[in-house]
Amino acid sequence: MKGVVFTEFMEMMDSRFGPELTERVLEAAHLPSGGIYTAVGTYDHTELLALVEQLAGETGLPGAELVREFGHYLFGRFVKSYPRFFENVHSAFDFIERVDDHVHVEVLKLYPGAELPSFRSERQGDRHLVFDYRSSRPFGDLAEGLIAGCTEHYGERVRIERTPLAAEGGGTAIRFLLTRVD
Predict the structure, then answer these.
(1) Which residues of 42-61 are buried (b: 16+ CB within 10 A; e: fewer)?
(2) Rounded to an integer, what distance in angstroms lies between the CA atom of residue 4 and that of residue 24?
(3) Where are the alpha helices (DSSP H) in the chain?
(4) What are 175's strand-pairing partners?
(5) How much helix, strand and coil, in percent to the nearest 5, is found in the chain?
(6) Which residue has the higher pLDDT, 110 or 115?
C-alpha cells in the first residue's frame, strides 16, 4: 500500500485526535516500519489495520467507523492534492464512473506499482448508480468513506447501501447502490 495513504492517516489522527494520541497509537501498534512513512514508500496494508485497531482502542470508536471517516477525509485531501482529477467533472456519479479508467490510470503514473482496487459502475437512470468494488485488501469501509466524501464534495445527498459479493482469493467484494435523495 502506498505511503501516501499512511501519511494521510497520520494527518487525520493528528487533526482529529491530537499528536499525543497519534504517538501513543504508533508506539502501541509495534509496526514493522516503526511508524515512519513517506508518501512515496510502500508498506504492508496490515500496518494500517494495526493503526486502526489501536486508534479504536484509544478512542472507543468502532474500527469500521474510523476507516469510513478516514475515507471521507482522504477524499478531501485528494481534491486538494490532485485537482486535475476533478476538472470537468460536475457530479459524484460522473466522478465515480471515471475512477477506474481515468483516475487510476493517473495514479499509476504517479505511483508505479501501486496495487489498486478495481471498480465497475453502471448507472441506472438519473438517480441510481451501482458500483462494484473489488480488492485484495479488506477496505470496503474505506471505499464507502471515499464515496461519502465524493458526494459531499459535489454537494449531493446520496444514500449509500452496500451488499457483500463473493470475493475471490480472500479479498473483498462489495456492491454499493448509490441513490440520489432529493
Answers:
(1) ebebebbbbbbebbbeebee
(2) 21
(3) 3-17, 19-29, 45-59, 63-81, 92-97, 104-110, 140-153
(4) 132, 163
(5) 55, 20, 25
(6) 115
Q: Which three cell numbers stand for residue 99?
A: 475512477
Cell of 167: 470475493
Return the C-alpha cell found at 19: 499528536
In the chain the first and final C-alpha atoms are separated, in Å, by 37
Amino acid occupying residue 5 = V
- The model's pLDDT over 20-73, given as tens digits with 9 standing for 90+, comes to 999 999 999 999 999 999 988 889 999 999 999 999 999 999 999 999 999 999
Q: Which of 76, 50, 74 is nearest to 154 (CA)?
A: 76
* Cell, residue 86: 476533478
Sign of CA dihedral 7, 162, 114, 168: positive
Give the whole-angstrom CA distance, residue 110 versus residue 40.
9
